[in-house]
Amino acid sequence: MGRAIALRLALAALLACAPFGRVLAQALRDHDPLELDLSGVVNAVERNQLDLALRRVDALLAAHPTFRLGYLIRGDLLLARTRPLRTFGNAAATMVVPNDKLEGLRAEALARLRALRDRPSSTRMPQYVLQLSPEEKYALVVDSKLSRLYVFQNVDGLPRYVADYYVTLGKRGVDKMREGDEKTPIGVYHVTAHLPRQKLTDFYGVGAFPLNYPNSWDRSQGRSGHGIWLHGTPSDTYSRPPRASNGCIVLANPDLESLARFVRIDQTPVIIADQIDWTSAASLEAERRSLAAAVEAWRRDWQSRDAARYLSHYSRRFHSDGEDYAQWAAHKRQVNSAKAWIKVDLSDVSMLRYPRERFVVVSFTQDYRSNNLSNVMSKKQYWAKEGGAWKIIYEGPAGAGPGRFKERYETVRSVQAAGDAVRRGRRVHGLGG
Amino acid sequence: MLNSSALRPALGPALRKLGLAVFIGIALTSRMALGDELQEADKLLKAGAYQQALERVDKILTSRPNDPQARFLKGVILTEQGDDKDAVTVFRNLTRDYPELPEPYNNLAVIYASRGEYEKAREALEQSIRTHPSYATAYENLGDVYATLAGRAYDKALQIDSTNSNAQHKLALMRELIGGPPGSIKEAQRVAAAPAPGALAKATPEQAKPVAAGGAGNNSEPAKPEQPKTKQATPPQTKTAQATPAATPSAGKAPQPGQSEAAGAAPPERAIVATVENWAKAWSRQDADAYLAFYAKDFDTPRGQSRATWEKLRRQRLKAPKEISVTIASPEVHVAANGTATVTFRQTYRSNLIRSTTTKTLVLERSGGRWLIREERVGR
Q1: Residue B374 belongs to what domain range?
Q2: N or C: which end of chain A has fewer CB within 10 A?
Q3: How far is CA A375 from CA A299, A310, A362, A401, in A?
Q4: Shortest CA distance from B242: residue in chain A
Q5: Is the bond into A134 cis (omega within 30 degrees of 0)?
């Protein structure tokens, strides 16, 4: 029994947290079955039922024969029968251990078990999803610190939690800045394509969903790199450690297949945050209303053709692909004064707060009509609060927005040319890939 | 993973234990009931005359086909001959007919282990102990099997081949279990003769015999490039270079700087331009301390970063390229009534990684006889 206690202590030391008995079955109803099985193993260990724990881990491994963390626990449960355990993952007792791999599995155990304990509750919402447009049926939000991807369903424009998954992120963490830095970007993205298994090597598992990194904000910040995908796992492992990719978001294959139900090309926002800031539904709604009112005022003031009122919604640090505030203001004054009438209608409005930044990405379909020009376009604006009032700091076509026409940037060979291209704001619209 | 050839050396101690168990069992029972013929067969076995021993036992079994002693001895002889298949049949039948005997389970386990079937070995040993809770050899073997199974599980967990170190581990395990459950007299003597548990590292040459390390590390995951490589589909190969590589665009407020009235560069303006030039020089020298010293304490860090975070990032970015050159051109200085100065200039940044020219604006304030940067942004 001394050995059982040793294992218990080892697990407790690993988890450094409250017992799992507190996990409510209710909250776990729709949870990842593998993690439910894993919690069954841990529960048995905590109750000192090591034989039961071993039977459970064996059943888990029978169902998921490449779940490496399961083997680590199995190793401990077997070794506990012959000697006291000193830590979680006692592989060092039987072999020369590659420490990075062992630490990776320990970190995975921690991430998975913490996620089991800290369930999202229906009263907490991620502060990033202020409003979803009707075509954004679901939104994905990644909590990098917890190695977790949460799926929210669009219910009347508001997010409702439906599922969450363990994810692997960049081996050097988050906040991607440049190509090859092995980091996952922080920001608001969307899925741009689906690559089925047949088009991929085994390394990507059952499929992949590329993201539109770098987005326009990333580019304005000088961030480089490409090929950030959501993808599956190679066939020789069920999952990978929390920090192991070169920047991609990696899910277990069954999880990726489950996630695929929620993903629509160009219509599923993917928000990657350092750590999700959860907020109450009431305060999220207050924020949404305040921003919606500002957007509506902007629309009305544009219709009024009163340039001063219209421009009052724009920040002095505003820019729009090559134009600064002064140029924008001069141009708009000129255009608006020449109009006899303007009618602007907005639809499919989406509002997503940008993690780490102080602005909200507002995108919508804009139906603009006037006495001499009419068009329908997808637009994207960044709204930030300045002195308590919402102001537009960026406006441009929503090439990178959900459900819009895609944009494609020219491939540039030299750094100098790239710099020039970005400065001139050259952009090619079309059916990009 | 363990392979069968690699397992052979590890089997040595287990087989010896098997042998020991057999001889003890036979020696103890022989005093009571063992006939001359059986003793004769046992002698032949000990002498290594397996075939003759087998013939003698078969002869006994023709007259007494159910004699457990004879059947057991036959199983041992077959095991020593390497006829695992028939030995398993003999021992399995014995466990069926005499489930209360621990030895047949134990010996089944040893054969299973020799084939690398550790799960089956474990089952058999657990059964052996259930029938005879004080059977020391079974305990010892079971500890061995658990440790091997644990090692295999760890192998799978960590994707390595630790066959070699597993062999050493067996030795350690035996020593550690010594002094556990009570055993037979001979077992107890073995216990007394065994070295102290502390001497784990001192494996005898035989026990530490290196195993051919074929495939060691073969299962470790190769360092795959993450940049997606597809057979048919290719991710967008868009390369967008940084327009403002090392610039820190400020999210701060943007008071519109007026046109400079300092065309003649009056002394304050001169000092301000000199400050900006020195700032660019410190940056070019990649001298982070000197560079950061140009920033005021209340510098408006981008994106609301903490000062410490921002400084850390700046140090990293200054350090990252092999070389940096920052030059400024056409500075326009405007000193506001409140004493703050706004300088707008063309900044040309070159490093081994990137090159870019941007318009940049610095807002400076005077503090302790120096002009310090309070805001920094791209553009005017």
Answers
A1: 267-378
A2: N
A3: 15, 19, 19, 18
A4: A222
A5: no
Strand partners, A378: A365
Helix (H) or strand (E) run with residue A244 in it: strand A243-245
Closest in A82, A223, A319 to B147, CB measured: A82
Query: Cβ contacts (< 8 Å) between A324 and chain B: which residues?
Result: 379-380
The reply to whether CATH 2.40.440.10 applies to domain A124-279 is: yes
| B358 contacts on A by Cβ (under 8 Å) | 423
Q: Do B233 and A200 touch (CB under 8 A)?
A: yes
Put simply, the chain A residues between 117 and 136 with a CB less than 8 A from any chain B CB are: none
Q: Is the ipTM of this complex over 0.85?
A: no
A195–B256 C-beta distance less than 8 A? no
Distances in Å between the Cα of A70 and the Cα atoms of A13, A77, A109 are 18, 10, 9
A65: closest chain B residue by CA: B156
Q: Residues 6 or more apart from B170 whose CB is under 8 A from it?
A: B10, B13, B144, B147, B148, B207
Same domain, residue pair B278 and B180: no
Per-residue pLDDT of chain B (380 residues; tens, 9 = 90+): 333 332 222 233 444 444 444 444 444 444 444 578 888 888 888 888 999 999 999 999 998 898 888 898 899 899 888 898 999 999 999 999 988 888 888 888 888 888 888 899 999 989 888 877 777 778 888 888 898 899 889 988 988 765 544 433 232 222 121 222 333 323 333 322 333 333 333 333 333 333 333 333 333 333 343 444 444 444 444 333 333 333 333 333 333 333 333 333 456 788 888 899 999 999 998 989 899 999 988 888 877 778 888 888 888 878 877 788 888 888 888 888 778 889 988 888 777 666 667 778 899 988 877 889 998 887 77
Contact A227 B227 (CB under 8 A): yes
**Spatial distance between the Cα atoms of A57 and A42, rounded to a whole number of angstroms:** 9
Q: Is A326 on the interface with B (CB under 8 A)?
A: yes
Query: A280-429 adopts what CATH topology?
Result: Nuclear Transport Factor 2; Chain: A, (3.10.450)
A244 CB within 8 Å of a chain B CB: no
Measured between beta carbons, the chain A residues lying within 8 angstroms of B236 are 192, 210, 226-227, 408, 432-433
What is the domain-level CATH number for residue B90?
1.25.40.10
